Amino acid sequence: MEDLSHYRKSYEKSELLESNIPKDPINLFNRWFHEVEDFGGNEEVNAMTVATIGLDGFPRSRVVLLKKFTEEGFIFYTNYNSEKGKAIAQNPKICLSFFWHSMERQVIIKGIANKTSEITSNNYFESRPDGSKLGAIVSNQSEVIPSRAFLEENLKQLENDYEGIVIPRPEHWGGFLVTPIEVEFWQGRPNRLHDRIRYTSQENFDWKIERLSP
């Protein structure tokens, strides 16, 4: 048995007050994102956990990279035939979460995921290195394969097939836009009296702002 009860930390780096936040969560996310990036404590500030409800009824989460955020929401890319792709197709209600330990901050986003347009997916795919493009083609993501060698041999074959020519985006690969309906910002504070501010989307396109007890 490993007792971890002595693992303790006091959170004292910042605060989150209603007097100093914007009226919408995207602007606050943008501010926090770049503050964390400028602080330099997170190597991949765009790393986030995507949680879905699987086809078997169990929740499942995994870390992926956020590739864009706008007033409309948050975009990431994946194989639509993967486990998470199939889960989203069946139930588009998903959760994104960011934990930025360097700034003692967390953001939790509940939203609805929809496929991005083909143009958006094509534009991002074209910006990727050729190795990443071929990786998207060769990988039947989440499917069982016999060995690592099987994957590498198929990649070598694709490298020969596409040498000197444009690599097209496979139809089963593209983006998801997550439109937020609720965004919670968590700022660590001393004595576990953390700041928690929740934005909830309203029908008139405004956001309801509430403080939650830690």
UniProtKB/TrEMBL annotation:
Pathway(s) per entry: Cofactor metabolism; pyridoxal 5'-phosphate salvage; pyridoxal 5'-phosphate from pyridoxine 5'-phosphate: step 1/1; Cofactor metabolism; pyridoxal 5'-phosphate salvage; pyridoxal 5'-phosphate from pyridoxamine 5'-phosphate: step 1/1
GO molecular function (one): pyridoxamine phosphate oxidase activity
Binding site for FMN: 62-67, 77-78, 84, 106, 141-142, 186, 196
Highest rank taxon of the organism: Bacteria
Textual note on the cofactor: Binds 1 FMN per subunit.
Subunit organization: Homodimer.
Protein name per UniProt: Pyridoxine/pyridoxamine 5'-phosphate oxidase
